[in-house]
C-alpha cells in the first residue's frame, strides 16, 4: 500500500526524487551569490519576510530583493515547468498553486516595504551570470 501524507500524497518512485525540491542553496543560486560577491556586492541570504516566506538574496540597505527561479517550480520563457501526471497530478497542481500564491504574497509584502524585486530564471544564471550580476549591481547602486 502506498503511504499517504496529510496532503493526500501518494508515494511513487518519481515523487521520492521530486520531494524536497523547493530547496535553498541550489546550484544556480550559489553560482549567482559567488559572482555577486566577486563583484564586491554584499547581501544577506534567506531573509525571513513573513509566514513561510523568505527571499533568496537581500540587499537590505538598497532594498533590492533577488529571487532565483528554479525550473522545477517556475515557468520561464523557454522552459515551461513540468506538469506531472500520474496518481499525484492533482496534488502537484495544488502544490504549484501554493508556490505561485506564496510568491505573490512575498512580492506584495516586499513592495509594501519599498523593495524592488528582481527575479531570474536559473537558465539565465547558468548561461550568463555576468549579465545577471550587472543588472543586479545597477539596481543596487541606483538606490
Ligand atoms: Zn529557463
Number of β-strand runs: 4
What's the helix count? Answer: 4
- Which cofactors or ions or other ligands sit in this model? zinc ion
Helix content bin: 40-55%
Describe the structure.
The chain is an alpha+beta fold. The protein is built from four helices and four strands; from the N terminus they run ααβββαβα. The protein has helices at residues 13-18, 27-38, 89-112, 122-142; strands at residues 44-50, 53-59, 64-69, 116-121. It has a four-stranded mixed β-sheet, with helices on both faces. Helix 2 packs parallel to helix 4 (122-142). It is globular, with a radius of gyration of 17 Å. Residues 71, 76, 78-79, 121, 123 line the site of zinc ion (ZN).
What brief labels describe this structure?
143 residues; 4 strands; alpha+beta; disordered N terminus
Write the layout of secondary structure elements.
Blueprint: H1 13-18, H2 27-38, E1 44-50, E2 53-59, E3 64-69, H3 89-112, E4 116-121, H4 122-142
Parallel strand pairs: 3-4
Antiparallel strand pairs: 1-2, 2-3
Helix pairs in contact: 2-4
The structure holds zinc ion (ZN).
Give a summary of the structure in a few sentences.
With 143 residues, the protein is of the alpha+beta class.
Amino acid at each position: 500500500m502506498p503511504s499517504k501524507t496529510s496532503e493526500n500524497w501518494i508515494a511513487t518512485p518519481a515523487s521520492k526524487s521530486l520531494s524536497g525540491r523547493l530547496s535553498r542553496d541550489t546550484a544556480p543560486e550559489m553560482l549567482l551569490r559567488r559572482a555577486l560577491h566577486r563583484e564586491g556586492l554584499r547581501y544577506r541570504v534567506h531573509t525571513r519576510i513573513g509566514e513561510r516566506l523568505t527571499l533568496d538574496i537581500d540587499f537590505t540597505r538598497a532594498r533590492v530583493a533577488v529571487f532565483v527561479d528554479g525550473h522545477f517550480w517556475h515557468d520561464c520563457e523557454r522552459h515551461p515547468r513540468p506538469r506531472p501526471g500520474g496518481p499525484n497530478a492533482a496534488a502537484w497542481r495544488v502544490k504549484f498553486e501554493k508556490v505561485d500564491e506564496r510568491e505573490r504574497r512575498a512580492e506584495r509584502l516586499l513592495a509594501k516595504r519599498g523593495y524592488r524585486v528582481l527575479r531570474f530564471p536559473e537558465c539565465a544564471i547558468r548561461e550568463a551570470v555576468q549579465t545577471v550580476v550587472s543588472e543586479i549591481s545597477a539596481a543596487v547602486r541606483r538606490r
